Amino acid sequence: MIYPETFEDKLGFGQIRQKLKGYCLSAAGAAWVDDMRFSREVEVIRTQLKQNLEFRQILEKSEAFPSRYFFDPTEWLQKIALEGNWLEADEFLNLAYSLETVMAARQFLSKAHDIYPELYRLAQPVMITGTLVQSITSRIDDKAVVRDSASPELGRIRKRLRDEQGRLRKLADQIYRTAVEQKWVPEGALPTIREGRVVIPIQAEHKRKLKGFILDESATGHTVFLEPTEMLDANNEIRDLEHAEKREVVRILRELTDEFRQQLPVLRVAYQFLSQIDFIRAKARFSVEIGADLPLLEKQPELVWYNARHPLLYLSLKGKRDIVPLNIELDRQDRLLLVSGPNAGGKSVCLKTVGLLQYMLQCGLLIPVSDRSRVGIFNDILLDIGDQQSIENDLSTYSSHLRNMDTFIRSASDKSLVLMDELGSGTDPDFGGAIAQAILEALLRKRVWGVATTHYYNLKLFAGQRQGIRNAAMRFDDQHLMPLYVLDIGKPGSSFALEIARKIGLPQETLQEAEKLVGKDLAGFEKLVRSLERERQELSERLKKTERQESDLKQSLAKYQTLSSELENRRKEIINKAKEEASSLLRDTNREIEKTIRHIRENQAHKRETQKVRKNLQDITQRVEPEVKPQKRAPEELKEGDRVRIIGQDGNGRVLSIQGKNATVQFGELKSVTKIDKLEKITAAVEKEIATRLRSVGVDVFQKRSTFNDTLDIRGKRVEEVIPLLDQFMDTAILLGQGELKVLHGKGEGVLRKVVRDHLKRYKEVASMNDEHVERGGDGITVVVLK
């Protein structure tokens, strides 16, 4: 049950229908928009949402899905169904074009059936083949004219017609030249057609000098259009042949229509598919425009939403300011939410967002929420919002609200979603508040789900004490008296009536009198609410700060532990290696000493032999002494944007930021924090060194430059695939010193173009980005000029 009848108008769903119809390519697709209805069948809704999501992916990847000749075939199929009727040649031609679109769409989905399974299921019943299209195009050309070859009789008739027309033209030229020589023809006049017959223009005073029939005259009466007697038979023959041609064309079209009449069931299935694809495409385009996604769908009522946005509000504020997303949660323990807060603070927008998004989802539309949100299925959505005064039924606004409340209490169940704006308002506050509380109690007993907004003090207390309902508040900046449009669940909100009145400028005496009239209890309650709000905000800020500090501490600790472990492992490796080298060196030294002593003894210490032995010992000494390391060079001064490499390595990156002795460097897709003294700025000499080293291992930079393609083709790629390809392409281009590049992304809906250009803005090396010349691809290609 959807209540009231004006539900869609009150929530703005009619505007969404109009937007969808504007995206449709055919009247048949727009008819699906008109027929779109609220559904309670979870599997039907799930299928519709998946179809929507799959087509949204097609648009985002700018894939070449057919988008032309989405004609509405209703009139054609009605003509075909009538025995003895026929389609005109232009109608058959459009029928052929649209059938080609059907086959192209089916072929596209057949090839991608694993990627778009729900859309492929729609295409499976379509049995259209190229034979039907061929039967049209073999008889009708692309100018919607029945071909001469459509039948032997038509070919014969048209040949005779052309011959007779040629003979008539020669005869008309001959008579016309004679009349011109006799100066019977007005100056500049030529033979023309009147009533389908070739005639000669003759001055009125000479009309008796040429035998024939006058078929017409000029507006002034100075010229008559005369059919000479000699041309009468030829004109009659041509007229007969034209009638024969028309009869034969009609016979051919009737015959072709009879062939298609036998295929009516197949045609209806095909056009059902085409119109439904048009409708789904329109939904997908709207989903892209509002940033909609597919949440987790539950069979039972549930409402746990993250980053929900009102689609119409989002579109109206797009490009002006960001919309504050809504986070809301209703569970089986607390199914009702009572939202309070100041006027113009966003309470009604919150309520309308809940109603509109739930209705959209159950109509098969993706909704603008985070994909981790959980959305359940309700049997009913009941709405009470706005001024519903009725002169015809003699109902006041409050009476109308009460009639709605009566319907809610009688009709709502544990699978109903009830939305009530300004609950209890419109009458005496004491009685209105009491009745509103009783209504909430009745709805709670029926375990109804819902959202209500109010200013009433007693309802806020009720929600704080009664199980099954929770308070919520629209956050408000009490320092600047500005709404923040953020929903806080778990506490009531203040109306800030006195503060707003003070800001507007009411006299202080008046405000003091108002405070006295309000009473200490209510004023104290309002102050307590505001105090709690300030404390909550302060606590929230402290909590965020603590969480950030804790996160930083965890990262630092993890980094320290990793570094400590690496250093310890490195220390052990160095010590073990040093011990092995020392042991080996000691063995070699002992061996050389023993050998020396033995050599001296054997040669009785001759001077020449002694010198030789001393040299050997000096060689051993040099091996034992530690190497003198070269003096460490002073690090070069680096700045943001410089291309650098880690000393001794070939890979290079770009400096993103410098903090003290550390620099954050982007190496391809990875970011790394590195000591500045470990980095080396890439100069011409360094680049030459890298090139030399790469050639030594089989990689030639100059050869790489000669094979580099300055055009990157990313058509058909997903968004997540594009960024790595684009980074690799740009890194190579920058390394090779390229001047102008081209990125071929296609036109489509412009999603890939936006992703490419937004990402290229991060490169400081990019001087400009523009569309290619319209004759060479236009906005389907981005031309990038490097500095």
UniProtKB/TrEMBL annotation:
One of its GO terms (molecular function) is mismatched DNA binding. Keywords: ATP-binding, Coiled coil, DNA-binding, Endonuclease, Hydrolase, Nuclease, Nucleotide-binding, RNA-binding, rRNA-binding. InterPro entries: DNA_mismatch_repair_MutS_C, DNA_mismatch_repair_MutS_core, DNA_mismatch_repair_MutS_sf, MSSS, MutS, MutS2, P-loop_NTPase, Smr_dom. ATP binds at residues 341-348. SUPFAM superfamilies: DNA repair protein MutS, domain III (SSF48334), P-loop containing nucleoside triphosphate hydrolases (SSF52540), SMR domain-like (SSF160443). Residues 522-577 form a coiled coil. It comes from the Bacteria. Acts as a ribosome collision sensor, splitting the ribosome into its 2 subunits. Detects stalled/collided 70S ribosomes which it binds and splits by an ATP-hydrolysis driven conformational change. Acts upstream of the ribosome quality control system (RQC), a ribosome-associated complex that mediates the extraction of incompletely synthesized nascent chains from stalled ribosomes and their subsequent degradation. Probably generates substrates for RQC. Belongs to the DNA mismatch repair MutS family. MutS2 subfamily. Homodimer. Binds to stalled ribosomes, contacting rRNA. This is Endonuclease MutS2.
